[in-house]
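Deliverable D2.4 — example input (structure tokens):
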């Protein structure tokens, strides 16, 4: 079973202050990224979607209802709608991850990642093969930061892409549920102040983390989008 845990809030623009690409608003980003996620799902595996919705507007709730109905995924979706706040919505996501069967693939995904069509299958297969975590984005600063340029990283071939070992992630990554459970205490501790740096330093030094080259998704902030891909074209495809 593939467990998709999608965390979304349409009232928070950008925690790091970076502008959105293509002059998009946060609700527009959510809609396009969710559509792209549905197009990225594998066709031959059972899917369960968990929508962790933090104080959404009625318009955004209506969008999710319509989109899931269109893709015949409404019966496969559980919705958790509350006024969570960032820390509690993240805690809810980890609680759901810990409830999955050990061999399930859990994809914890934030609402501002734009995915390439059919992109989850190579990430899932890689995570199953190497018992690791996978972050879907190839950040451009991995080619410019001294600590990345001059460090030797493991690289493995995957389905249509290569996977490079990396040291850190946001709260968007996938792996087998049993790996989430092995690191449960740290994951819940990282919810305080939504500290993905703490998560990365404590988890990914013990269980390896990889990202695809080129990226199979991009974080929708200017100046951090994955290189080598025409993301404007991907965006246009899901928003025709």
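Example output (designed residues):
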């Amino acid at each position: 079973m593939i467990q998709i845990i999608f965390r979304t809030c349409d009232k928070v623009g950008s925690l790091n202050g970076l502008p959105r690409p293509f002059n998009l608003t946060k609700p527009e980003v959510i809609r396009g990224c969710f559509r792209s996620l549905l197009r990225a799902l594998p066709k031959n595996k059972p899917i369960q979607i968990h929508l962790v919705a933090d104080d959404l507007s009625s318009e955004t709730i209506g969008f999710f209802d319509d989109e899931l109905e269109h893709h015949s995924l409404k019966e496969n979706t559980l919705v958790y709608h509350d006024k969570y706040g960032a820390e509690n919505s993240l805690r809810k996501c980890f609680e759901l991850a810990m409830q999955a069967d050990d061999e399930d693939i859990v994809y914890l995904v934030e609402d501002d990642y734009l995915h390439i069509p059919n992109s989850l299958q190579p990430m899932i297969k890689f995570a199953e093969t190497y018992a690791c975590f996978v972050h879907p984005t190839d950040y451009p600063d991995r080619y410019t930061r001294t600590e990345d340029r001059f460090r030797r990283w493991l690289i493995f071939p995957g389905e249509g892409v290569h996977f490079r070992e990396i040291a850190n992630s946001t709260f968007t990554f996938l792996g087998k549920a049993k790996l989430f459970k092995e690191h449960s205490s740290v994951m819940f501790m990282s919810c305080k102040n939504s500290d993905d740096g703490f998560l990365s330093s404590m988890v990914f030094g013990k269980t390896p983390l990889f990202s695809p080259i080129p990226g199979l998704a991009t974080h929708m902030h200017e100046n951090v989008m994955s290189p080598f891909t025409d993301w404007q074209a991907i965006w246009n495809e899901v928003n025709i």
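The longest helix spans residues 26-40.
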